[in-house]
Amino acid sequence: MRTATRVVKSLLAFALMLGIITALQGPAGASAPPVIDQVSLSQSVLVPGEAAAISYRLAQPAQVTAMIYTPDYQVVRVLMDGVHRSAGINSVAWDGKDDSGAMVPNEAYLISLQARDSQGNTYTYDPTAFSGGEKADIQLELIPMAEGYNVQFTVQEPVRVNIRAGIHNGPFLASIVNWAPYGKGTYTVAWNGLDSGGSIRVMEQEGAMLLPLCFKLPVNSILVQGSSDDYVAYAKSQSAQQVSTTGEAVITVSTVRKSSLKRASTGISTAYLVARARHDAPKFTVNDATGAPLASLRKTGPIKVSSHYPLTMEVTAEDVEDFYEGRYEIVVFVDNERFDEEESAQTPYTYVLDTTSLENGVHEVTFNLVGLGGQTESYSFTIEVYNE
C-alpha cells in the first residue's frame, strides 16, 4: 500500500512538473519569435549617390553586425560591427561603397545580419539559407531590327539571366546575356545576330535557336547599377584583401553549398554554385600548323585541308589562369553537327582533324570550350577539304 502511495505521489509530481513546463512553453505548437525578423530593403536597386536602408526587427536588445557581400561571398563592407541596438525596428544604410570607400561594380550584392544577446547567444539572418538558386521562368521575344535583333525578355522577380544563341543539337555560337542580374521587369538587349567571332549570321542557320535560362537571386539582394562593369577584375582583387571586423562572415561558399544541398528539392540551378567571376569561359583561338589563327584567314577564303590536319587550340594569355582553375572539354562540330570531343582540354592543345570522313568541299568547323559549370566559349572557321 505504501509503495502504491509513493508511486501515485511520484506520478502527481511528474504531472505537476509537466504542467509547469507546458505553461512555460506556452500553448502546443507555439514557439518563441525569431530574434531577427522583418528584414526588408528601402530599395532593391542602388545607383551611385543613393543609399539603400536595410530595416530589421529585434525581439530583444543585441549587439548587431551587418555585412555586405559580393555574389561570390566576399565581404566588401561591414556596416556595423557589434553595435548595440534596442529591441524593435532598426535600420542601417549602405551607399554602395566597399570598406575602402570605392563604389562597387555593377552586380547583385548580399546582406547578412548577426545579433548577439546579453547571454552571448548568437542569431543570424542569412538569405542564402532559405533562398536563391531556384530555377525561374523567363519570357523571351526576338525582334528583328534593321541591323541585328532586339532580344526582349520579362522576369517576374529578381533573377540572374543567361541567354545564348546556337543550333538545336549543335554548337553554341553566341552569348547574348551572361548570367547578369536583373530585377523584376521587361528588358531589351541589342544583339548583332552574329556568332562570337562576328562572321556567322546565327539565326539564318538551320535549327538556330535562343536558349534562355535564369535562377532566383537570394531574398533582399541589392542590385548596383550605373557603376563600372569590371566586376570580374574587382572580385579577383578583393580575394587578396581582408575586411576588418571582429565577427566572422555569415555567408561563405561552404554555407551556400550546404544550404543548396538542403534545398535541392526546390530545383537549384547548377549555375548558382558557379562563382560569378568564373561564369565566363576562357576565350581561345584555333591555329593552323603555321600558328595563324584560322578565323583570321576567312578574308582569304576557306583553309584548304586534307587527310589528318593538325589544329592547335590555345587559350588567350589573359584567361589562362581562369582556365586552369576550372575543368573544360572541347567539343568539335562540323556543319553544325557534333563531330568529335576531347574530355580533358589543355592549353595549348593539338587536335588532329580527320577529314577523311568528310566530303570534299567547304565545311564550317566550330570548337566549343565547355566547362563543368556550363561555361561555354565558341570559335568557328571554314575549311575546304580536298582528299583524293
Automatic annotation (TrEMBL):
Keywords on record: Signal
InterPro entries on file: FlgD/Vpr_Ig-like (IPR025965)
Species of the source: Desulfatibacillum alkenivorans DSM 16219
Signal sequence, renumbered to the chain: 1-25
Domain FlgD/Vpr Ig-like intervals: 49-117
The name this protein goes by in its record: FlgD Ig-like domain-containing protein
